[in-house]
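Tokens for Dipeptidase PepE. Go.
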Amino acid sequence: MDIMLFSNGKLPGNTRLLEFGLDWIEAMVKRTGVKKFVFIPYAMIRSDYQSRADDLQSVLGEWGCEVINIAACADPVEALKQAEAFIVSGGNTWVLNKMLHDNGLIGPLRQAVLKQNKPYIGWSAGTNIGGPTICTTNDMPIVSAAILPSLNFVPFQINPHYIEASVEGHMGETRDERIAEYLIMNPHQVVVGIPEGTLLHIQEGQLNYYSANGKPMKLFKFSEEASYYQVGDDIQFLMEHGY
């Protein structure tokens, strides 16, 4: 399997989607030889699906790839079967996860990525669904009948857009406090916080962390002090059973 889970889609100053990660994506495309990407835009609420697909086409087209908007396909399940790789937009995680379940795409996506080794690229919401559940998303549940279980590509929870900060005058919980609350209720889980400009890459079962700006990932466990991991640190233990 070859899975890239980006925290976000752009950094300040970027003009193109995933600009800060293009070297990594290009290496994946050349390594795997994939040409036909199916784009899953369901997380998008305030933007146009096809416009985002066109943006991605302008990026991936440089390497001879085609981007197909699944929302324009008559049979989404068949579109997944015909795809060589997948790219999943950020946006609202609750809407994305619900639509994947509603359209019967969770099983086919897991089969394609985990069994058929089709590459997967996601950012923000597209990364959140890579964990066992979407419980550690930052998004509001703006749909009813919200569904928590997701793709379970990795056995740990992910918090994209992780920020270690307090806002002056803001009396609500910090991100760390929200994650701590989750772990109190789910002490058997761990949460990986990935800040802007970073990604988790799973290739052939090997997990690595990359950063375009030197920011570390942060690992949260119940009743333990959070720990930091830099690029090059061994984080393979997160893929072991029990997490």
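Residues 5 and 127 are 5 Å apart (CA to CA).
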